[in-house]
Every structure is written in structure tokens, then in C-alpha cells.
Design a protein that fits this description.
The chain is built from four helices and three strands. With 84 residues, it is an alpha+beta fold. The protein has a domain of 56 residues: YefM-like fold, CATH 3.40.1620.10. Strands 1-2-3 form a three-stranded mixed sheet. Strand 2 and strand 3 form a beta hairpin. The longest helix has 9 residues.
Length: 84
């Protein structure tokens, strides 16, 4: 079922009742799909792939950002110096 943002706002309870019955509601803005409301009991595609064992969480942890470089002056001046 596709509905516009205004209709969703005006009839939210009705559309949430449809979702509780198992239907998916696609929200559109000027005719373009922008979001979906899906029943909670239905797993997302990502959850389904994880349950099937076809994907797994990454093992490498994100590295911390390096310490900032100390500098004195205005950024635009520093960039100009780098370009010379």
C-alpha cells in the first residue's frame, strides 16, 4: 500500500492498524517512495541474511582518530602556504 505524507499524518492510526495486520505501508513524497513501515515480527532483509549465516558482523574495530596537528594561524593562510 502506498500513501502520501499528508494522508499518513491525517490517518496514522488507521495505517498503523494495517501494519499490525501484516501489511507494509510505503510512504511517498510527491509520488516518490521515501520510507516504509513494516510489521515488527517480519525480519528485515539484513536480519534474514544474518540468520541464514550469509553475512556476519565485521570483526575489525574502527581505529581512533589521530591526534590533531597543532598549528597557529587562519586556516586559509595555512592552505595558501601549503600550495606554494
Amino acid at each position: 500500500m502506498e500513501i502520501g505524507v499528508r494522508e499518513l499524518r491525517d490517518k496514522l492510526s488507521r495505517h498503523l492498524a494495517e501494519v499490525q495486520l501484516g501489511h507494509t505501508v510505503t510512504i511517498t513524497d510527491h509520488g516518490r517512495p521515501i520510507a516504509r513501515i513494516v510489521p515488527v515480527q517480519r525480519p528485515t532483509r539484513l536480519e534474514a541474511l544474518r540468520e541464514e549465516g550469509r553475512i556476519r558482523a565485521g570483526r575489525i574495530r574502527k581505529q581512533p582518530a589521530p591526534d590533531p596537528v597543532g598549528a597557529v594561524g587562519v586556516v586559509s593562510d595555512l592552505i595558501d602556504d601549503q600550495r606554494r
